[in-house]
């Protein structure tokens, strides 16, 4: 199985346009369209998805722009799987990494929390004074982070929100961040479980702020010349990209190179001194830490490829630009969505159960049969009001592992051998220079073995030369001694120390009487 990286985007009609948007899956390298899921129009931050993994098919959800409806899709059908009526129209939504919970924010500052498999409304509370603009879960799904037009960022504990004993209490945030002065536009959570992960937030106040959840404090503030509408963070947290509505995309490196006092160069992190630490991106001395990409179109979404080598930029005109991060060169543009606006942009591996592209390893002939091998993640209709009786009679659903006696033990898509995975992964992320030279690991091993053999032959020849020299010296000294005895001369009693070095640490000394 060869890993294939794809681009998932969500489109919506422009303010002056008409029609309906869609979820669309593209091939990253060629830009071709792999699948289209129509009849959905979601605003920015109103779409979410989960990939096919752990034996369950992935899903895509989108809250509609003009109505309180949630459309649900799966990769095995190109039609709407279900429509869910919501309590009110959502301004943003988010799925936790396991798709166990779905959170939705409203224009009134209210947040809803549902369980996806059962549809139970666990909690609904007034979280902000004004509209909730963005919701994000941490990578472990323990915390929910919300950003609002009231410039506040709040961190909510999911275990407390679903605790039955706390259902009658007003939910309070674990902690809040209030250093922004204008509406929050985007939030990006770093890798790692809570509270070891860090968080980036962007705002219309021209700043992007880096927060530490362990100390619950501000680490660094980055000030830009224009308001920031969306951000994306490299998975290694070495750099991030911040886009402005005017089409400017800034690359900000979180490290710098400086001269060491003892000579040479040293790499060190930048920032980290707290509230007083403000890095102005437009300052002349900070040009080395920032690089600018000019798109000349309003930017609405950003994404970084799995290999962290490509930057994807979605625009309000429906174009998706693919840039090389190292050189900032525009490699290609996907122009299949002209007249629409890109509201979601993400990269993922091609789903094995994708309609029209079902993997042959599934041993199925159609999408209907694929459901038996990879069942779709269940999504129940969401409750519009809290019902204590539904929580009391709640039945927990779980996915049982495939047993050896089942007819599918011959191997399915999610049975990925470790050796095959490591081989595919090495091929997928190999450096460009290695790819161009065409050298494989086996060829490199053969080359090293040949070099070792040559070194051994040279060492053997050096030993032979050394032995020959030793024999010549010994024979010469012995013959001189015998000649003196024949001439009646007294042989010299002085000893000559000779040494032989055969390489390494083995050294031998011999003393010869002259």
From TrEMBL:
Keyword annotations: Coiled coil, Nucleus, Repeat, rRNA processing, WD repeat
Composition skew (Polar residues), residue ranges: 496-505
Sequence ranges of the WD repeats: 125-158, 199-221
Single GO BP term: rRNA processing
Record localization: Nucleus
The keyword Coiled coil is assigned to this record: yes
Family: Belongs to the WD repeat IPI3/WDR18 family.
Protein name per Swiss-Prot or TrEMBL: Pre-rRNA-processing protein IPI3
Organism the protein comes from: Pisolithus microcarpus 441
Source taxonomy: Eukaryota, Fungi, Dikarya, Basidiomycota, Agaricomycotina
């Amino acid at each position: 199985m060869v890993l294939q990286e794809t681009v998932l985007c969500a489109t919506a009609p422009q303010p002056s346009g008409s029609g309906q948007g869609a979820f669309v899956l593209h091939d990253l390298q060629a830009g071709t369209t792999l699948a289209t899921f129509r009849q959905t129009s979601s605003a920015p931050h109103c779409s979410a998805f989960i990939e096919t993994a752990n034996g369950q098919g992935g899903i895509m959800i989108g809250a509609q722009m003009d109505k309180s409806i949630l459309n649900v899709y799966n990769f095995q059908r190109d039609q709407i799987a279900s429509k869910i009526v919501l309590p009110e129209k959502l301004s943003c939504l988010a799925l936790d990494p396991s798709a166990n919970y779905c959170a939705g924010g409203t224009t009134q500052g209210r947040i809803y929390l549902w369980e996806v498999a059962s549809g139970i409304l666990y909690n609904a509370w007034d979280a902000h004074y004004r509209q909730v603009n963005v919701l994000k879960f941490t990578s472990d799904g323990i915390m929910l982070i919300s950003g609002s037009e009231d410039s506040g960022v709040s961190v909510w504990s999911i275990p407390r929100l679903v605790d039955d004993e706390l259902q009658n209490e007003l939910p309070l945030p674990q902690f809040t961040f209030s250093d922004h002065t204008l509406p929050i536009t985007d939030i990006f959570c770093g890798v790692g479980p809570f509270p070891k992960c860090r968080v980036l937030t962007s705002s219309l106040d021209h700043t992007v702020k880096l927060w530490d959840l362990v100390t619950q404090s501000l680490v660094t503030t980055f000030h830009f010349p224009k308001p920031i509408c969306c951000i994306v963070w490299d998975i290694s947290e070495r750099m991030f990209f911040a886009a402005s509505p005017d089409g400017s995309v800034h690359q900000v490196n979180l490290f710098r190179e400086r001269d060491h006092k003892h000579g040479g160069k040293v790499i060190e992190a930048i920032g980290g001194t707290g509230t007083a630490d403000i890095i102005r991106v437009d300052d002349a001395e900070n040009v080395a830490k920032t690089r600018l990409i000019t798109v000349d179109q309003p930017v609405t979404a950003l994404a970084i490829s799995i290999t962290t080598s490509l930057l994807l930029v979605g625009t309000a005109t429906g174009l998706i630009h693919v840039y090389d991060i190292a050189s900032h060169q525009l490699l290609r543009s996907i122009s299949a969505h002209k007249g629409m606006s890109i509201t979601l942009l993400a990269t993922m591996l091609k789903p094995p159960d994708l309609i029209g592209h079902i993997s042959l390893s599934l041993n199925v002939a159609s999408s209907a049969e694929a459901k038996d091998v990879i069942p779709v993640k269940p999504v129940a209709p969401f409750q519009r009001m809290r019902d204590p009786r539904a929580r009391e009679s709640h039945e927990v659903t779980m996915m049982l592992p495939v047993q050896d006696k089942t007819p599918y033990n011959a191997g399915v898509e999610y049975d990925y051998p470790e050796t095959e995975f490591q081989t595919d992964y090495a091929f997928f992320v190999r450096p460009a220079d290695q790819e161009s030279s065409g050298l494989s690991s086996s060829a490199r091993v053969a080359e090293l073995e040949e070099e070792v053999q040559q070194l051994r032959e040279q060492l053997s020849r050096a030993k032979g030369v050394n032995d020959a020299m030793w024999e010549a010296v010994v024979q010469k000294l012995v013959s001189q001694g015998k000649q003196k005895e024949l001439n009646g001369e007294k042989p010299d009693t002085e000893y000559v120390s000779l040494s032989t070095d055969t390489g390494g640490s083995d050294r031998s000394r011999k003393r010869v009487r002259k």
